[in-house]
Amino acid sequence: MQYIEKYWLRLWLIGIILLSMMIFLNRHIVNDITIGGIMDHQLATNAARVNEIQDSWMINGQLDMARLSMAIDLFFIAIYSMGAFGAGRVLSKKSSALYVKLGWLIMFSAAIFCLTDYAETICQNIQIWQMGGDDKMAKLAANMQIPKNIAFLISLIGIIIILFVQNFFMKKKI
C-alpha cells in the first residue's frame, strides 16, 4: 500500500496514457456496423449484436485491433484504479475534513470503477476471444456502463481537483 501511496500520480498518469492509447485504437475499429467502435461492443445487450460487431471487425480486418484495445483495457483498469485509490488514500490522511471526505470519495469511486470495468471488460474479452456472443455476458457488460462511467468521472474530477489545489493554492504538495 505504501508503494501505491508514494507513486499514485505516476500510476494515475500511466493509466491516462493507456486510456489515450485505447481512444487512438478505437478510431481504427470504427466501421458501418460499429460507428462507436469499442463502445458499441460495450453497449451490446445480446449475443446477436455482439456477433454482428465482431463479424464486422473480422470482415474489415479490425479484429486484432479490437482485441488489442480490450487487452490494454485490462491493464488500464488496474493501473488507473491503483493510482486513483492511492490519491484518495493520501488525501484521506490529511487533517482537513474536506480532504478526508474527498479522499474517501475518490477511493470508493476507484474501487467501484475497478470492479465494474473489470466485470464489463472480462465479459467482452471472453466473447471476442471465443468469437461468439453470449446473452448473459453481453447484458452484464452493458449494465456496467452507467456505474462504471459515474465512478470513473468522480475519481477523475476528484484527482484533477487535487492537482489543481496542490499546484495553485498549497505550498506543501499532497
Automatic annotation (TrEMBL):
Q: Does the keyword Transmembrane helix apply?
A: yes
**Transmembrane regions listed in the UniProt entry:** 7-25, 65-86, 98-119, 150-169
Keywords of the record: Membrane, Transmembrane, Transmembrane helix
Identification of the protein by name: Uncharacterized protein
